[in-house]
Amino acid sequence: MTTPPPRFQTFDDPSHAKGPERIEALRAALREVGADGFVVPRADEHQSEYVPADAERLAWLTGFTGSAGLAAVLADEAALFVDGRYTLQAPEQVDTATVTVVPLAETTPEAWLGTHLKPGQVLAYDPWLHTPDGVARLERAATKAGASLRAVPDNLVDAVWAGRPRPPAGRVTVHPDDLAGETVPEKLDRIRAALVQGAIDVLVISDPHNLAWAFNLRGADIPHTPLALGYALVPREGRAALYLTSGAIEAALRTRLEPLADLRPRSAFTEDLDGLCRNAARVRLDAATGAAALKDGVEAAGGVADVGADPVTAMKAVKNAAEIAGARAAHHRDGLAVTRFLAWLDRAAAEGVSEIAAVEALEDFRRESGLLRDVSFPTISGSGPNGAIVHYRVTRATDRKARPGELFLIDSGAQYADGTTDITRTVAIGTPTDEMRDRFTRVLKGHIAIARAVFPEGTTGAQIDALARIGLWEAGLDYDHGTGHGVGAFLSVHEGPQRIAKTGTVALKPGMILSNEPGYYRSRAYGIRIENLILVEERTIPGGDRPMLGFETLTLAPIDRRLIDPALLAPAEAEWLDAYHARVREALAPDLDGPVRTWLEAATRPLAEAAA
């Protein structure tokens, strides 16, 4: 009997019982170094969203497992700062008698520190876990309070973390040129051209995503994202150097890279960077991922720290023809799996399906292709009130079965060698209420508004974010997360710099892939989100006099029509939905048979026909 492969996700319930004990241990460490407070961001030395186990300091200290957050621990109080995605989750995970959960919508960490630090106190921080801009904000907060800010050479959480996991050392492999669409020499030439244009002597690549893109490699150091941790130095002239945390570099990759770059141990990175700085070199450090410690080191070695955008970030965001073809293939494959899952969920719901059972079933359907490399993030599988927790992660302790009259929200994604997917569907279990149908239809209207949007070149995500919210605003409703994030090509499911959000200030360009995911959440009752991935493409408008852009929807899976109130849809919106469903049916039906094909044909009928 063949043993099934281990799942890509677990459902362990993180223990939070030791939170107060661990915070007291941290306070003892503070006293030993003569400090009065310590800032603990959810970050590693690359400022990553998803971090390896040895960098999960915030989770270990407080119990909060979200992908973004920051704790400030002072001698007599502590606060955890979270954004709108985690305002429900955080209080459930932390000991609120020890740690006060503070929504970022109410105040920032810097504002809080400015009023809670006392004159003469010392606030400590780890310079590898903050950007220079982040340190400057902390400095202003400490100064406002009459306190001082001090970098510590060793992280104080690490000093008290017994049994801290070892750093990752996953295998580093080749990402084939036919999937990358561009060779490493071609990419290095583009990078060096950008350095010449910016009068930059050396680029420090501190973002592992950019490292993976620039050198056509993939790794296994981070859960669900194929990254190899490390750095690269790319001089304007001369050989590049690559510093990977892991030494497990496959022979084929080593053979490819050795003519182009020196493969150096991670431990040599700081010394090599110092050597490049001795002639007053101008060194570009990425403002988003370059640690304050890098800036300090460059300046101490005699270099000029030029903190700005890593040019690789913008290059990576615009997908080439090969990457776009890969994305379409991955979404077709993923659409088949998700459709099989939705058909299964409709059958299983009659007997009561649990959140964990849904996660496992969806992963199994994706595995059937034989091409699944990983899930792209832990699946959000929330029934009833759990669906209202935006980034809910089911555990064995929270698992519940969906009940008739509830909604089931499942947000998931997959990693394939040719593309990364991310899709959310909200499904009616039994008969939905009129309120549920109203809210769902308003979210759908916003989704359609983004999908149909046509806009001039130079438009940013912030300029179109409101389109997704108008239907909700008309009813006095809204949601507290962005409408869309960038997505990588067999890289991170959350990729910048593009995004559709109030903070999305980067102009959208053809070739960028983003999510389209408006939502609505009624606390402790239900959650609604409809998510497809979209590709920015050029559009020609007859009679127009400006270059225009629009979106191609990549995701292929039915949207639950049982939750739609047709009276709320404008004719053009209903036409879009019917056309989308016809496209889904035409694309997927030939590769489905039996009950699933029959289910798909019923689920994608025209809206008017279904209403009748």
TrEMBL record:
- Say if the entry is tagged with keyword Hydrolase: yes
MF annotations from Gene Ontology? aminopeptidase activity
What InterPro entries does this protein's entry cite? Creatin/AminoP/Spt16_N (IPR029149), Creatinase/aminopeptidase-like (IPR036005), Creatinase_N (IPR000587), Pept_M24 (IPR000994), Pept_M24B (IPR033740), Peptidase_M24_C (IPR032416), X-Pro_aminopeptidase_P (IPR050422)
* Domain named Peptidase M24 C-terminal: residues: 547-607
Q: Which UniProt keywords apply?
A: Aminopeptidase, Hydrolase, Metal-binding, Protease
Looking at the record's lineage, which domain of life comes first?
A: Bacteria
Domain Creatinase N-terminal positions? 22-142
Domain Peptidase M24 residue range list: 327-538
Stated family: Belongs to the peptidase M24B family.
Recorded protein name is Aminopeptidase P family protein
| Organism expressing this protein natively | Methylorubrum rhodesianum
